[in-house]
Hints:
Blueprint: H1 6-28, H2 31-46, H3 56-80, E1 92-95, E2 139-141, H4 147-154, H5 159-164, H6 170-181, H7 186-193, H8 197-210, H9 212-215, H10 222-238, E3 248-257, E4 269-270, H11 272-284, E5 291-297, E6 300-307, E7 310-319, E8 325-331, H12 334-337
Parallel strand pairs: 3-8
Antiparallel strand pairs: 1-2, 1-5, 3-4, 5-6, 6-7, 7-8
Helix pairs in contact: 1-2, 1-3, 1-4, 2-3, 3-7, 6-7, 6-8, 7-8
Amino acid sequence: MYSLPSRDLEQLYTQYYALLKAIAYQMIGSHSDAEDIVHDVFEQLANKPLAEIEHVKAYLIRAVTNRSLNILQSARKQRELYPGPWLPEPVVSQIARPTRKASSHTEDTGGNEHGTERAGTSSSSLLPLAGTRATDLHFTSIYEYDAEQSLLQQEQIGYAVMVMLEQLNPVERAVFVLRESFQLDYAEIADYVNKTEVACRKMLSRIHARLQPIHKLQPVDNSSTLAFTEAFLEAARSGNFAPLLHQLREDIQLYTDGGGKVRAALHPIRSRYRVTTFLQGIAGKGAFAGEWSLISVNGTPGLQLQRDRAIVYVLTFAWDTDGQVQHVYMISNPDKLAHIDATTSV
């Protein structure tokens, strides 16, 4: 059996791995599955003569797209049975400037009602609580020297859009990601998804019409969104969310994803009153006790909570064009936080 020389395979792996994983991640919303897809593609490539491949990059993208489509087909049924809302795994960046540890107004009862006992991850830089303007904050990737994660950051689509992509069928999602995030030509995309170029153009037009509301969920400006994120943390620490009410839409929706492994709401929580009541309730039970970091989640300001050297929450928000918060996303499923590594422990 033919076997590609290891040096050639390593060179191709180094050259294309970041791109391929970024495509797979955005198509399926899972880091671990994206890694498996790319590894499988390179295992197949190792046994294929390169002379038979006219364009290696196109071959690899097509292979990753096909495998991603297969996973999406099977995942649709699995996600229908998922306990509660299914949220994508977050791509996290940290704030470069460290500061002091945040404490909660209540002690953790020890029951770990809203957390997990998973060890091995930690937070690197904590939210400046005073003396720092939001406009002074600088996001830097926690994978600063990792080309794979750098590409995930540079080519990413917003977290709210990732959530909304769950409404699309697998082929629609592939067309959207390949065009909107990676700017591939329609002719290339058509080849990858086995459709005509005209069909892909029409498909993307229909997708834009369906997702139009989510395109309005964009931060008004960086300073105001960071300021709200800081204010949210102060509310979480004090258990008093009243100061945030004017910044929340009346029809705000909160989504929690515990994956059935940690306690979380099994249905989206809707309305300003119900969302703030829920947040104040879990804050009073110690759910927000621990060490906080101001982070970026798929390019959007967010927060990360760490307790006993384990990341127990990642939160991020979606704003409307008036600067009010439309959606809150809380990820606590430990499987979806396992890929987030910290540079230092606190």
